[in-house]
Every structure is written in structure tokens, then in C-alpha cells.
Amino acid sequence: MLDHILLGFSAFGDPMIWAALVFGALMGYLIGAIPGLGPSLGVALLIPFTYGLDPVVSIVGLVALYAAAEYGGAISGVLINSPGTAAAVATAWDGYPLTKQGRASEALGVSILASGVGIFLSTAFLIATAVPLSEFALRFGPTEYFALALVGLSLVAGLSEGSPMKGAVAMGIGLALATIGLDVQTGVPRFTGGEPEFFEGLPLVPVLLGLYALSEVLIMIEDGPADKVRNTLLTGGMAAPFRLVGKLKVVILRSTVIGYIVGVIPGAGASIASFISYAVSKRFSKTPELFGKGAVEGVASSESANNSAVSGALAPLLALGIPGSATTAVLIGALNIHGIQPGPLLFTRNPEIPYTIFASLWIGVPVMVLIGLLGIRLWAQVANIPRPAIAAIVAGICFVGAYASENSMFPVWVMLACGIMGYVLRKMRFPLAPVILAMVLGEMMETNFRRALITARGDWTVFFTSPLTVVLLVVAALAFLLPGIAILRSLSRRVRRAQT
Amino acid sequence: MKFDTLRRSILAGAAMAAFLHVAPVAHAQETGWQPAGPVTFALHTRPGGGTDVFVRTLAQSLEPMIGQPVVINNLPGGGGAVQMANVRAAAPDGLTLGVNTVTHFTGMLTNLQGVFAPDDFAWIALSQVDPILFFAEINSDLNSMTDLVERARANEGQVNIGGFGPVGSMQNIAMEMLEGETGVTFNWVAFESTPDIIAAVLGGHVDVGVANLGPALSFFEAGRLKGLGVLGDERLDTLPEMQTWAEQGYDVDTSWLQVRGVFGPADMDPALQQQIADAIHQAMQAEAYQQYARASGVLDSDFGPQEYTEFVDGLMTLAEEQLQAAGLLGN
Q1: Distance between CA atoms of residues A294 and A98, nearest Å
Q2: Where are the alpha helices (DSSP H) in chain B?
Q3: Three-class SS string for A458-483?
């Protein structure tokens, strides 16, 4: 094994590999930061440029882009509350409040270092466990995926500020939106109004742009130009973010492990990884009340998880040829173009591919962190742009990002509608997090629920035949029950008060 | 080791193809198609999938031949509706073309019925045909299509078959054609990508999977999957031991294949259509394209406008019969 790792590092004797790594990291950093693009589109856009290159050089560039884009998504989330990717949504929950408090550079510093640590450690996990853990992940069938989605959804309970009832309503909205589109099993159109554009469901990118970014613009307009907190740079130069992260090492380590494991499971991915580790960090935090209002712990856990999920998603790809995320599915296409078919034999036939990827993930970390830290000074200035100007810029990004996501006007309308909905929900003090969580998980939950019942010919006991499923279901039930009891208690209190 | 021979035959095939087609490539500039500006290929998928890789590889060898840039325009959404609307509205000057799969035909019969019809378009060239095959996990008791049918007969249809797309999709219709032929029923489990199907078969969550050869090949080579039968006229060169359905006594129409073709707006000058088809077929002979096509296990087709239009008519009739039989057509 050691000789293979050395083989991986030896590829870096070629200056072309370095060029690909730096170029990929820079591109990913920018593509991730632009809402509407994101890692899978970024990798796909770069593929044509790799035609003439050596396969190893191309794959190093593409993987560097993937990892850096997963980090870049945090930048726009922190600065303007419009996460570039679904996986950065949880980062924005605390990152944007930090920016509003004048602590943007702190949030950005923590996010880049947490991302770096996440990738660095999870790459070690990847080298050690790619094959056995991927084989284990095959055990995830329809019932396990359903139960996992339910666990994810149960986290809503912990993420709803104040009223669990409002959290439940917001979750219901998200679940309802997730039912739009062609029925995955029967192909029957649901809630499409006969419009083919709705067949594939509501696209996630414009929904994110609308709910978070556009609704933020509307609130900025309402607040007017006054009372903006000026963002100050961290004092203490480059060392400052490192000191901060030193205090967060437990959070980062735990989130990295969660992110990696969730990343390995082919049907899950970076967004679910970041949601879960965010919720876990909140539960174990000494100051859970700060989450959602500007907790650096929140930023650190989301970012270390979504970046370690990159290594996680690479595990089933390299070990079995099964992509663990949308972006790794695109990577398969890239490898195909170079005549390499990832599969169970990749490690024996083309060991240079996986081992160079491992080496490039490690070597890429300092490159990515350096770009990120240097960028903070620049980005922090964005936070100081006067409010009317930033509102105009963000509104522009919403429109262009939505259009670019599918090259058509449909996502633009979706973005506008979601922007208005997001604004109304925020005005009525409904939390937005459960809406997004339910939209991401709703489809996974429904598809696998029905798939499980179809394979079992309608026999409900199928959900209790796998120990893995049962454990996940119990966890979900507990997480749901606790706030459920709180709702009942507050209701009965209200009834009692009405009686007296 | 049979898979060594398998790999060798792929390589030999690719080398042979490359050798045979050196001549046409060298004279590539002699194509009759001389577009006046950049040519746009509209796609119904996001970047990175099988169809996207096909067009991008083709574009690479097409560009120098026609002396114009080739732009790939990914227009996902609406089960192909966004792309088809874009192509239908374009001028028939050959500068806007679309790439289609069988989904376009099943769509025009079901969800997109009344929105689009084959006559709205010119069917210019067929590039790839890709037969489907049924497979099982290597340790499964099922070793052939006959085993599968017998299992279904004995258990009143309690065999789970995982394939791409909902009821009425290309692969589902193939299963239904087998049901019609044998009189047994199977249990269709819809998935949204081929890797998901393979993972479900490997994990034992479904009994049998359906796929085209390309994405499953490495699992056959690794000895993790075994083929039960291919729906085609002949056995696959790369998996010579797997019998066809017909060899096992199941007489199902073998023109039911996955296809990738090129289409344009209706009313395109037939001479222009022929020129475009020739240019595309010529570009497919380039070494890079051949290398990609052989590695992905697809077969080349040289159908021009006339043959392709007839082929589309045949596919539409076949699909309509099957969808009708399955009760998926409203009337």
C-alpha cells in the first residue's frame, strides 16, 4: 500500500500535474462561490478542456475543482446569504449572521480551515477504508435509505428556532414542494398543471437562490440603507484563523467523521452530511442557543462535513465504480472520455488513478487553504459594500444564476416565486431551514419508501427486517418525539389557559 | 482467463477501426456540409451523462471537419420538452440540431402527447445503437433468461427487476415485451440511474438489473455480475458467453434498443439533411471517437435521414403497441 501511495506522490514530479491542481483549485473556488453554478456543473464545464491531456493530469484537475467548489459555496453563503450549493446552506445559517455582526472574516477563516482539515483527515480515512466501507454501503437498500432520510428530516426538530409548530409547518411546505413532478415509479405527472417544465420537479438551485438570497434582498430593501455593521478584519494576520480553529478541534473532528461516512453512502451526499453534523454539533454544544445566530461552531461543522463528504463520495467511485454524489457521477463521464471505466478493478488495473487522487487531495489542501486565506481580505470587502448596492448585486446574481442553471427562463420564475415565498415566511417568523431540508430529503424518502414497498409487494414488515433500518428508524422516532411532546405540552398549556 | 480475451478483443477492435478509417479522416475537410456559422447541439440532459459525453466527443472531431465551432447547449427539464421546443422553434438551416434517445419517442406517446409529434422534426442521422441486457449478482441462482422466467412463473411474479425509468420507460417496455411473450409477470422497480441499479443488484436489493453494456462492463470483468441475456440479434462481442433472448427461446423484437440520434426542425432541405448525416458519420470514424465508442460498448450506426425516419416510424409503432398493451395510453 505504501508503495502505491508513493506512486501517487511521484506523479507530482510532473509540472503539468501541479498546473492542473492549481488551476482546478482556482476554478473550483470561483465556480463554487457563484450561486447557480456549483461543483457538478463546474466539473462538467472543465471536461472538454481535458481532452488533450493525460488522464491522470485531467483527473487531478477535476478532483481539485470538485473539492475547492465544495468550499467555495460557503463564500457566497457567508457574505450574501445565498449559498452556492445545497451543501453550503447550513454554513450560511451561521455564516451570514456572523457577517451581519461584522465578523465576516472570522466566518470565512473558520470555513476555509475547517474545509481544509476536513479534506485532509477524510483523505486518510479514504485510503484506509475505501474498499471495506464501500462494500458495506452496498447494504443500503430502499428501506435503509428511507430510514436515513427520515433521520435527516427528524433533525428539523432541532433546527427550528422557537416554535416547533412553525418548524413542522415549514417542513410540510418543503415536503409538499418535493412531490411536484413526474412520479418516479409510474411516470404520472403530479401537480404540474400539465406544464412539461414541472415534470422533473422544482430545480433546487433556483429554489435556494429565491428562498435565501432574493428574500434577503427584499428584507434589505425594507431595512433601507442605514445601520450596517462595518466588517473588520481579524487581527493577528494569517495566524488568527488557526487559533480560532484550534478551539474548534472537537467539532471539526466529529463533523469530519460524520461527513465522510455519510459521503460514502451513494444515495446520501454532502448536503445531508452537513445538515446532520450541524444538528449533532448543536446538540453537543455548550451554547446551542447561539446556533443560527452566529455560532462559529455551526460554520465549522457544516464546512468540515461537506468537504469530508467529497472524500467520502470518492470512496464508492474508486472502489466500485458507483458514484457517491452528483459530481462523482460526472467524474465517471470524464474518466470514460479518457478510456478509463471506473469499476471494481480500478485499483488493480489503473492504481495510478486512485493513488494520484489521494496524493492530490493531500497536496491540494495547502493550495486550497492558501487561496482561501488570501481571498478573505478581498471577500471581506464585499461585506462592506453599502446595502443598496449589495442588494442590487445580489438580485442580479439571483437572476443570472437561476437562468444559467438550466439555460432557460423557467428556473428564473421558480426563483422569483420562491423569493416571495421566502420573504413572506420570514416575515411570519417561519424558519427556512426545514423547507430546504424537507425538499432535499422528501424525494429520497418517498422514492425509497415506495421502492421498498414495491420490492416487498406491499408488505409493511419489510421496514423491520434489516437491523440497520430498525436502528435508523428508532433514532428518527426519538428525534421526532421529543419536540412532538413539546408541541403537545404547549398546546395543552394553551388550552388550560383558555379555560381559566 | 476469458476477460483477458475480452479486453484484447476490445483493443483489437478499436485498433482495427482506427486503422480502417485513417483514410477518411485524412480527407476530412471534404465534407459537403459547410454551415454558415457555429452549430449548436441542444441536449435534454445535464452535462456529464452518457448522452453529453457522446456529443462532446463527436463535436471534437466534427469541428475541424466543418470548419465551425460546435456549441453544446444543455437544456434539461420537462422530460426533454425544453430541448424539443428549442429545436422545433429553430430555423431549418442546420445550425440548430438536437440529440435524441428513445425517451423522446416514449415521451411523445405519453407525457408529451399532443405537445410534440415526430412530424414536428426532421430525423437526420442515427449514430449509436445500444442493446439492453438483463443481469444478476454473480452468486445469484439465476443464470439465464429461462431461470428468470421460471422463477417468475413459480412465484407468481415475485421477481424484482430494477431498471431505468418509471413504468413506460424504454427498459420497462422491454420487460413488458418479455411478459407478453412468456405470459408471466415481473415486479418493476424504477431507478433513476444505472449505477443505482448496479448497486441495488450487488447489494441484493433487487433480483435482476437492466442496463446497457457500457456502464456495467467493468462489473462483468470483475466477476461481480453475470449476464442473463441480451435483447439483440447477435451476442455481444465483449460478452460472448451471454446468449441472446432469442437463443433462449424468447422471440422479442430486437429493434427495441437504446439509440442516440441527431434531429432538427421539420422542413429541413433533404439535401442538407444528407450532408449533415454524412458529416456526422464521418466524424464518428475519428480515432478519438472510435476509442470512446468501443470503451463504452455502443455500436455505430450509419443510418441517414431516410433510414432513420423509417426506423423512428417503426420504433413509434412498436412503442405505441407496448404502451397500449400496458394500459398506459389514455384511449
Answers
A1: 5
A2: 2-20, 22-26, 50-66, 81-89, 102-109, 145-154, 170-182, 194-202, 213-221, 270-283, 287-295, 305-325
A3: CCHHHHHCCHHHHHHHHHHHHHHHHH
Chain A closest CA to B329's CA: distance in Å? 12
**B293 interaction partners in chain A (CB closer than 8 Å):** none
Residue whose C-alpha is closest to residue A144's, from A441, A447, A448, A443: A448
Report the Cα B200 to chain-centroid distance in Å.
Answer: 22
Interface of A with B in 197-256 (CB under 8 A): 197-200, 203
What is the tally of structural domains in chain A? 1
CA A104 to each of CA A218, A231, A384, B248: distance values in angstroms, whole numbers, following the listed order: 21, 6, 10, 68
For residue A272, the tally of other CB atoms under 10 A from its CB is 28
With b for 16 or more beta-carbon neighbours within 10 A and e for fewer, the A433-448 pattern comes to bbbbbbbbbbbbbbbb
State the nearest Cα–Cα gap between B190 and chain A, in angstroms: 5
Q: Answer whether A434's CB lies under 8 Å from A170's CB.
A: yes
Domain ranges of chain B: 2-130+257-325, 132-248
Nearest CA in chain A to B11: A339
Would the CATH topology of B2-130+257-325 be identical to that of B132-248?
A: yes
Which pTM does this prediction carry?
Answer: 0.85
**Cβ neighbours of residue A484 under 8 Å, at least 6 residues apart?**
A157, A164
Hey, are the CB atoms on B190 and A185 less than 8 Å from each other?
A: yes
H helices within A265-351, ranges in order? Answer: 270-284, 296-320, 326-337, 346-349
> Which of 3.40.50.1820, 3.40.190.150, 3.10.100.10, 1.20.1440.230 is the CATH number of B2-130+257-325?
3.40.190.150
Domain limits at A275?
A: 2-499
**Which residue, among B70, B164, B205, would best test binding to A if mutated, counting the most A CBs under 10 Å from its CB?**
B205
Write the CB contacts of A108 (distance below 8 Å, at least 6 apart in sequence): A74, A75, A78, A79, A95, A372, A375, A376, A379, A380
- Indicate the residue of B48, B57, B111 with minimum beta-carbon distance to A199: B111
Judge whether A66 is closer than 8 Å to chain B, CB to CB.
Answer: no
Closest alpha carbon within chain A to B52: A333
CA atoms within 13 A on the CB side of A486: 15
Tell me whether A332 touches chain B (CB under 8 Å). Answer: yes
Give the H or E element holding residue B42: strand B39-43
Which chain B residues are closer than 8 Å to A184 by Cβ? 166, 190, 192
> Does the beta-carbon distance from B60 to A51 stay under 8 Å?
yes
Which residues 205-234 in chain B show a CB within 8 A of chain A? 205-206, 214, 217-219, 221-222, 224
Task: Spell out the per-residue pLDDT of chain B, length 331, in tens.
Answer: 333 333 333 434 444 333 333 334 434 445 689 999 999 999 998 776 778 888 988 998 999 999 999 988 888 877 888 899 999 999 999 999 999 999 999 989 988 888 899 999 999 999 999 999 999 999 999 999 999 999 999 998 889 999 998 888 999 999 999 999 999 999 999 998 888 899 999 999 999 999 998 888 889 999 999 999 999 999 988 889 999 999 999 999 998 999 999 999 999 999 999 999 999 999 999 988 898 888 777 899 999 999 999 999 999 998 898 888 877 775 4
Residues 238-277 of B with CB under 8 A from A: none
Chain B residue with minimum CA distance to A142: B205
Quick one: CATH architecture of B132-248? 3-Layer(aba) Sandwich (3.40)
